[in-house]
Amino acid sequence: MSDGSSSIKMVEIENKGRALVSTKPLRAGETLLKDSPILLYSAVPDGAAAAAYCSHCFRTIAPHSVTAVSCPNCSTASPFCAPQCQSVALSTSHTPFVCQALRRLRAADSPLLHHHLDRLLQARFLVAAYNLAMLSPSHFQTLLSLQGEAFIDDASVFLHSVISSICQLSNVGEFKFSVELTAALLAKDKLNAFGLMEPFDQDKERSVRAYGIYPTASFFNHDCLPNACRFDYVDSASDFSNADIVVRVIHDLPAGREICLSYFPVNCKYSDRQRRLKEDYGFVCDCDRCKVEANWSDNEEEGEGEMDHDEDDMDEDNGDGDGDEGVDLETTDCGMDKENDDFPHAYFFVRYMCSRDNCGGTLAPLPPVDARPSMVMECNVCGSLSKCED
User: Fold this and answer.
1) What is the SS3 assignment for 114?
2) 61 in helix, strand or coil?
């Protein structure tokens, strides 16, 4: 399920909980992890938009594709990119249980008919999670072990009643079907789901096509200047591993360093970052960058955003959890010392942010070859490759 994980291990960090740290010195571009999802669910509204993606692997289905097939029970509502994908799905991600539940969610009398899309997505997640419980209790137990405390509120009670009405469950495999379990699952989804993104389009806002739960990647903590970067290649032609996510380090790191991703684009200003982290993840960030920017005025924050756009942009899952202390300036040939510069984040923005208009992606070197660092940088949003300038 996970490859490359010998480079990282899980530890407990005071006031942060479980985290992933490096087990050895790491070179820029080194792959830390290739993680497969234990469940996926669609983030696209039903209809023509949903028909554009495979219901199992979420690869784009080309218009008039000769290999595309449908679920024999859902018809065109659940397309698959090829017969092989359909065959696998019917015994895993699209079992009769899932098929029946999704058909009822789409029905004209669906209890979610007049609710916001977010409620439908949560219901899809619960269907996928309860299907996982029946097919793989061990993976379901992994899901329950992830961060997120159950909180029974009106939303969880309502969604539990929705699942009860469409699935008629009493027990789910080895687990008792209850509002407490539903609330716990919703908490895991809120804090741990990764979005599989649409391809970059310079003229459109980037959106999510599917969400996935990844058993190891879920333990990467956030930092506003991360030292690792997440890549996904959903439309690649590599069998059924196209939904895997790959995490690579941005720059050299010593053994024992915590590996952090950014949960959103790093060119977000301080106030927006703090608001999103508090609302979505329930914590206040006090990383090195936030300690500096906490004392800035709103005008200074706006200036930072302008600099970010001009020098480069940023996207989800990137950066340096401890500032840039792990950067080997001799290797990178930048000549800008973080500690002595008036703007301590300048090195990161110049070096590791994509300069393509409206991209907002993070740059990481391609994996080293024969222990030699690559001078080619890959953007984790638009996918462009660029030569690293001295």
Assistant:
1) coil
2) coil
Q: Minimal CA–CA distance to 82: which of 211, 237, 232?
A: 237
28 within 8 A of 331, measured Cβ to Cβ: yes
Residue 363 and residue 251: Cα distance in Å, rounded? 10
53 backbone dihedrals φ, ψ, rounded to 5°: -130, 150
Please report which confidence band the pLDDT of residue 2 belongs to, taking 50, 70 and 90 as the band edges: low
Q: What are the tens digits of pLDDT across the range 33-83? A: 999 999 999 999 877 677 889 999 999 998 889 999 999 888 667 899 999
At 277, list the tokens.
Answer: 């982290």
For 248, the token pair is 């690579």
User: What pTM value is reported for the model?
Assistant: 0.85
> Would you say 348 and 370 are in contact if contact means Cβ atoms under 8 Å apart?
no
Cα–Cα distance for residue pair 315/328, rounded to 1 Å: 23
293-304 pLDDT, tens digit each = 888 755 555 544
Exposure of 149 in the CB half-sphere (CA atoms within 13 A): 3
DSSP state of 113: T
Helix (H) / strand (E) element for 278: namely helix 270-281
Residue 245 near residue 72, CB atoms below 8 Å = no
Residues 39, 128 contacting (CB under 8 angstroms)? yes
For 310-334, how does the pLDDT look when each residue is reduced to its tens digit (9 = 90+)?
Answer: 333 333 443 333 333 333 323 333 3
Dist CA 118 CA 102 (whole Å): 15
Q: Tell me the one-letter amino acid at 180.
A: E
**Token output for 264:** 């959103």
Element (H, E) at 13: strand 8-13
Give the span between the Cα atoms of 88 and 95, in whole angstroms: 10
